[in-house]
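Methods — Computational structure assignment.
A single polypeptide chain was analysed. Its primary sequence is given first, followed by the predicted tertiary structure written as structure tokens.
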Amino acid sequence: MSATSVSTTADQIFILLRDWLVHFLPAGLRPAAGVVLGVIAIVCVFPGLFALTTVFERKGLGRMQNRLGPNRVGPFGFFQPIADGIKALTKEDVVPFRADALVHFLAPLVLLVTVFMGFAVLPVGRNMQLADMDSGLLFFFAMGAATELSVFMAGWSSRNKYSMLGAMRAVAQMISYEVTLLLSSVTVVMIAGSLSLEKIVDAQNQYTGIFPHWYIFTPWGLAGFLMFAIAATAETNRSPFDLPEGESEIVAGYHTEYSGFKFAIFFVAEYLAMFALSGLGATLFLGGWSAPLSFLNVVPSWLWFFAKVMGAIFVFIWMRGTLPRLRQDQLMNFAWKFALPFTLLNLLVTALWRFMGAGWPRWVVCSAILAGAYVLMGRLGMHSKKFGPRSYRYAD
């Protein structure tokens, strides 16, 4: 077997395995069986990554804080997620007496289902996409918009002022940054000319010499990626945007009244949302499953996709161990006074890039506009009394 055929087989190993499994069934059942196998793969792979990520995060944060992470349960503490899962299953499920029991029960399930639905349109490798929709990006954001509903359901149904305050904080934050998230993705649609995530990857899966045509290597792409990354961090309530779960202020936010396995579902859904948005960011700006250099295409495409996703997760962990939590006014001011205007300007820059044609003038013009706007908006914003730097005062 030649090296090319070995590389192709490794790249399509899961597609070949799926086709081999379904060929035992009647021809009429094979499409449905293929979809079921794809769903099983998603439901198994990403929660498995969640379990590993919790260990890596706790060990990484421990290293940053000069302490040990999990190291008792299993070799090097890698069985800690199993212990955590057993604990969550066996803990008592407490529901407040005055809570709306049905809505209280449905909230974490709605959140988990909508997060899982987003994975259906993500191309995790060449020919590895559960549903190749022409409007895949629109479907992803439509499913993501339902998370605000589940968060509000959790806070409202608990009949707890802390839960309600946390839910209102979360909904305000998620809606504010979802606008930036959507508009930063529109720039990619303008250049690729399609809402299909597979076609967006194909548009970037080209090379000049050994270097790829990823959108992040353009002025508008870099600006869009940075705004997307910031908005994704806020959407998933990760540090420094973890105000909806501010333990020192509102106990635990919208899931204060959740315990046992229901709380575990919220916990799992938050990490799955991180994976989904990391995968979407990699798809839109980092070439999706395409290799970073042309001669590395011998590596299976699905490995590149998951490497990019885990690289983004590492950055999430790094920021959690490094950055302090923002104030609520800083959070909202940044969204509406900097992120949104800058993203709108980036739409204009993307249009200029598209219609100016190839050549160095568009690089100069687009880079100058974005750099000038960044400096101007940053200076004006940081000198504003309401949008100033964090200050610390100590008692005498």
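Note: Residues 30-64 form the longest helix (35 residues).
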